[in-house]
Amino acid sequence: MQGGSTGIVYGGLKYQARCIADVSADPDNTSFLAGTLSLKEENEVHLIRLSPSGTELVCEGLFYHPNEIWDLKSCPFDSRIFSTVFMSGETYGASIWEIPELYGQSNAPQLEELVSLKERASKLKCVLWWPRGRHDKVISIDEGNLFLWSIDSSSKTAKVISQESVGMLHRLSGGAWDPHDRNVVATICESSLQCWDLRTMKKTNSIENAHFRDVDYNPKKQHIIVSAEDESGVRIWDLRKPKFPMVELPGHVHWTWAVRYNPEYEDLILTAGTDSAVNLLLASTTGSNDSTSESLADYATLRIDPLLHSYSDYEDSVYGVAWSFREPSMFASLSYDGQVIVESVRSYLQKN
Questions:
Q1: Of the ranges 4-13, 51-60, 182-191, 201-210, which one carries the lowest mean pLDDT score?
Q2: What is the pairing mode between strands 2-3 and 307-311?
Q3: Are 322 and 245 in contact (CB under 8 A)?
Q4: Do 152 and 166 touch, CB atoms closer than 8 A?
């Protein structure tokens, strides 16, 4: 089903942008963080919240960031903490920041840098937080290495616990931390997906011969992962049987850049692409105890086309997309021209 946007638009970003993240640790608000990517201007991080009426997006805080933001993640256990990967000239860095107390003012004081992740051998790609509750470790991924850090916010220190190089044959571009097992992380590179045991920093298994753009774990089912790929669109894998995908889903007309499982309804998947569109996909799963997921699975059996809806009212490529953890029927998308749109998929949860 094709269609334009019927969502709520936030027009506060003045510069180009790629990164948006749900503030999952905020129990009281549906809120997102978005970071800009200006080469010449001082960049910004916007704290965006959905109004209590659910009719508009409000800037709750605007914070200056010293460099271009290429990756942004919100801390899963503290709504005021987030990480960025940034670039200044040809130098990459990564830091963990704390949002100051706002006291009702949107133009708040400068962000406080809690920790700088200084060690880097090559081009940094992303920082990962373990998505299930409080954890004192983060992962950074650069083109050639995987680092596991121990973070002490009180003393503002970060220590590398372990690291592993993937060798000259691979260039890492991202990854995801297994929500079911804090000792497992999946990394993606030009031609494969690799799973690592963080206790030994050894590769446990891999999916070969695919050009991965993004990957995300199913939050409800262990061993299940979804990938966005250049040639094959979107595919769901069982990591215990990595030779062939479980399900193949349509991608975008151009590159499928990002893919995200819904945090509550495991059948729903979002993808974002450089064809200026966001796609809502329905991938049938079985064995769930969640009644809504079962309803969606029943609905999926009646459909030939897994594409529920394509949100196409964008004027530029869409690189960022994030489900709301607090309200899983809503998601935010960010196009390269700085436009944030929040949409509701509630109508698709009420088909049966």
A1: 4-13
A2: parallel
A3: no
A4: no
